[in-house]
Structures are given as structure tokens and as C-alpha cells.
Amino acid sequence: MKIKVLDGIFIRYNIVDKAKQSIWFLHGFADSGLAYKEVFGSDLASEFNLYVVDLPGFGVSPVHSNYVSIKEQAGLLSRIIEKETENNVEVNIVAHSIGALIGTWVCQQLASKINYYINIEGNLTEADSYFSSKPLQYNTAEEFTQYFEKRIFENAIKEERYKRYYCSFRFAEPQGMRNWGITSQEYIKGNQCGFEFKDLTCNKIYIWGDLDTPKDTQRFIKEHNIPNKLYKGVGHWHMIENSKHFYADVSKIIKKVYFI
Questions:
Q1: In terms of pTM, does the model score above 0.90?
Q2: Is 26 helix (H, G, I), strand (E, B) or coil?
Q3: What is the DSSP letter of 117?
Q4: N or C: which end of the chain has fewer CB within 10 A?
């Protein structure tokens, strides 16, 4: 694994061969690229060029004053991906939780370059914003941060997946979290985010587990025939809770199209 900074975005990466496809990994709310730490020890690291991103205000990447909204950050990342993959080889996107809004918009903006989009429990319905909508309930970013830290810490004492999440949360900038919370809501109302994912024309799949996925979202998946894969007994962080199985399946999913 190596690191680089492109347009203020911190990226962990591994280049196998510039002629091969790349996979770009996007984290969720208050998280960071550390959520995908295990990918560099998986078989994907020898099969694809990997890019694990810390989005603005999260992990090592500072809040970017020119790209405040979550939609603006999708535009920034699309330009970075396009520049980094000028060899015209197709790319794949893996995005988690509300970071999947960015993943969906990148797939819209780079439609001709996308081979596969793997959405890990991203927002399909309003019910999925159970974390990302919380900043709106507080007057300041700092007030929200104090509340959220206490809640996540209580979970981290009991669950390994929350320990990892808590580590990333501690590096997240309060204003970065508030920016995502405020600017994402207009795209979640009326399940707009779910319909945008449904309407994508690229190869796509929605990954979910039966522990944390809201019932409204489960119904949306069924009613709208969303291409999906269910992992029973798995919670919100598939790449942490089920990493070996998950990354092996990511390889199989992409290769079904890539190696025809």
C-alpha cells in the first residue's frame, strides 16, 4: 500500500498494472478509509488497482472549503477518478452507507467508465439516514459531536465493529459531519436516493445484511427489484464484519463482467 494526496483528498492505493481496472472505495458517515483496511491483504490487491479514499472532513482529508456539500464532493471525486484513469480502462466503485450517495453520483457522472457499482448498505430510503440525519437535531457541529461520541463509545465497548468506527469518528471533523448531514437530506426525501440507484444503467448490486438494514429499505429492495445480495447475520459494516468472504465475493462479482 502507498499513499498520495490528490486535490486535497488523502488516498491509500495499490497499483498492480495501469492496464488493469481499478476499484475505488468510499466510506460512510463519520468513517474513513480505514474501514477498508483489510482489502490490501485480500486477493483484490493482486487483481485490481485499488484506491481507498478519505473524503473531505474525514480521516486524514481536511474539510475542503470549495467542496462543502456531499454533491460537490461527488463532482470532485469524479474529476480525480477521471484524471487518475486516463488510460480509458473501466473503473469499479464500492461505496458504503451514505457514502453511496457519492458513489451513485460518480456512476452517473462517469457513466461511460463504470464497469460495476457495489453499494454496501447505502441509502435507498429515508430510513437509512439513522446516523447521517442526526446533526440536524443539534444547533452546532460541536453539540452533535459530543452526543455522537458518547453513543458510539458505548457501542464500541461491546462490539468490535464499533471500535473501528469509533477510531475513524475521532478523526472526523465536526463540520465535515455536519456538512454531510445537512446537504444530503434533500436527496433522501421521498427515497430519491433509492430511485437514483435503481435508474443507474451500469452493472450494480446492493449488498445488505439482516441485522441493521431497516424494514423500509428491505421492502424497497423487493418492490423495485433492486439487484442485491443478502448476507444473513451480518450488520452494517460488511467489509469489517465479514471481510474475507466479502472481498472474495467482490472479486467474483466484478470478474463476471470484467473477464468475459
A1: yes
A2: strand
A3: E
A4: C
Checking if the pLDDT of 155 tops 80, the result is yes
**Measured between alpha carbons, how far is 37 from 106 in angstroms, rounded to an integer?**
22
Summarize the confidence of residues 198-221 as an average pLDDT.
Answer: 97
CB 9, CB 53: distance < 8 Å: yes
Q: What pLDDT, on the 0 to 100 scale, is given for residue 135?
A: 85
User: How many whole angstroms separate alpha carbon 5 and alpha carbon 10?
Assistant: 5
Report how far apart, in Å, the C-alpha atoms of 47 and of each of 39, 207, 230 are: 11, 21, 25
- CA-nearest of 28, 30, 25 to 12 is 25
Q: Strand runs (DSSP E) across the chain, as ranges?
A: 2-6, 9-14, 22-26, 49-54, 91-96, 114-120, 203-209, 228-231
Sheet-wide strand order for 91-96: 2-6, 9-14, 49-54, 22-26, 91-96, 114-120, 203-209, 228-231
Q: With pLDDT > 70 as the criterion, what percentage of the chain qualifies? A: 99
Longest Cα–Cα distance of the chain, Å, equals 53
* Burial (CB count <10 Å: 0-12, 13-18, 19+), residue 225: exposed
